[in-house]
Amino acid sequence: MLGVGKEGILKNRQGFIAPLFPARVAAAALGGFGALSLTLAAIGIFGVMSYAVSRRTREIGLRMALGAQTGGVMKLILIQGMKLAALGAGIGMLISMALTRLMKNLLFGVSPTDPLTFGTIVLLLMSVALLACYFPARKAIKVDPMVALRQG
To answer: In Å, how far are 36, 77, 100 from 40, measured between CA atoms?
Structure first.
């Protein structure tokens, strides 16, 4: 529990000065921005994949009319989205590895190029991308071939 002492300095219960308070505030702010950016990335991937599915409605309908299995169509859409996500994750990792020197002062107890951290983040991003691609893929497999072939 933090409180303000006579001198206006933040102190904990034992009376010690809390020197890590600014770093904790920065970490909380960066964590919030990270969560916001992950949400925006998921919305963006969902939007791009929904648009791609809507543009390919005739193709998907034709595939379904010719006997394509729903699993195959879903796999087609998911692979397309995951290729884009993997490309973005790869480029993002290269850029983040190049910029780790700027963040060195904000990291406590972890090296700037910690492989576990990078691996965890890439796994999280790819999981979110898979989830964002799943819903447009479900929409694709529900395409009625007759309706899709009648469209423009």
So the answer is: 6, 21, 23
Alpha helices, H only, 66-112 = 70-98, 100-103
The pTM score is 0.75
Q: What is the pLDDT of residues 99-148, one digit of tens each?
A: 887 877 767 777 888 889 889 999 999 999 999 999 999 998 988 888 88
Q: Is residue 84 within 8 Å of 48, Cβ to Cβ? A: yes
Contact present, 35 and 28 (Cβ < 8 Å): no
Greatest extent of the chain over all pairs of C-alpha atoms, in Å = 80
Q: How far apart are the first and last CA of the chain?
A: 66
Measured CA to CA, the distance from residue 104 to residue 15 in angstroms comes to: 29
Closest CA to 44 of 88, 75, 79: 88
Output the pLDDT for position 106. 67
Q: Which two tokens stand for residue 108?
A: 């406590």
